[in-house]
Design goal:
With 272 residues, this protein is of the alpha/beta class. It has 11 helices and 11 strands.
Length: 272
């Protein structure tokens, strides 16, 4: 999977030091997961709302590794080697990669624009057909005012505002819809719910593609190799209040109000 390849690259770049870091603390909130790593850096990921805990028999109940009381102290290497790909494991993997991304930002490894949303930098008139993965209502509103044809792949039609439901396309039609797009906007949640790999393969090489959201903030080299044009990431600016925020039910937009800012990282070698 894509995030396993990101982990392997992080291991190479860090001389295996990344895999030796351990989870010092963790919060799993309503909308976000946050981890504090042993090197002092924090990371986040979007929550997967899964039924895997509730739809089990008594014999299937899991009290093993990477379940409550068995997370703190585990190394990143153990996390990525763990054979069960549960929702919690997947969220923790993204969050630890996000923490490593923040370490690299601190080391000035990437050039980025502060307080910038990549969507605000795009001239939508240049893209006749736009496909969005996930119902970002603020983005939908902005694109709806242009002449571009918009389709939004989503699992739940109720995620749309009533005036935006005309853009709804069932998510399982991605193989039909994405190859037709001139611009593809994807959420980092696709990394968490294991749909990113299939979506990525459906994007035509000539399309412009943008990845956005808290879960998109992981080391971007492999994104750029796969022709992702821009990444709309999240930079934690006040880590000391991240855990209280997540514990109190914060969503991404709450972070931007109190302890984070949007950043845009551009592909240094975009396609012509």
């Amino acid at each position: 999977m894509f995030i396993d390849r990101v982990f392997q690259l992080a291991q190479i770049k860090s001389n295996d030091a990344f895999g030796q870091l351990f989870i010092e603390d963790v919060r799993i909130g309503v909308f976000l997961v946050a981890v504090k790593m042993s090197n002092g850096f924090y990371g986040t990921a979007s929550v997967i709302h899964s039924n895997e805990v509730h739809q089990v028999t008594k014999k299937q109940r899991d009290f093993g590794e990477f379940t409550p009381m068995h997370i703190i102290g585990k190394t990143v290497g153990e996390l990525f080697a763990f054979p069960k790909n549960t929702a919690i494991v997947q969220m923790l993997r993204i969050a630890t990669l996000n923490a490593y991304f923040h370490q690299l930002l601190h080391q000035n490894a990437y050039a980025f624009s502060n307080q910038t949303d990549p969507i605000d930098t795009l001239d939508f008139q240049q893209f006749p057909k736009i496909v969005m993965v996930g119902a970002f209502n603020s983005y939908i509103h902005k694109i709806a005012t242009t002449s571009s044809q918009l389709q939004v792949l989503e699992l739940n039609e109720d995620a749309f505002l009533p005036e935006h439901q005309k853009f709804f396309v069932p998510a399982d039609r991605y193989k039909e819809v994405i190859p037709q797009a001139d611009l593809v906007i994807m959420t980092g949640l696709t990394l968490v719910n294991n749909t990113f790999d299939d979506l990525l393969q459906s994007i035509k090489p000539s399309s412009k593609s943008v990845l956005i959201g808290p879960s998109a903030s992981i080391p971007p080299e492999l994104f750029f190799e796969h022709h992702i044009s821009m990444i709309g990431g999240t930079m934690i600016t006040k880590p000391e209040i991240l855990f209280p925020m997540v514990s109190q039910g914060a969503a991404g937009y709450h972070l931007f109000e109190y302890c984070a800012e949007k950043i845009t990282i551009y592909n240094p070698h975009p396609m012509d």
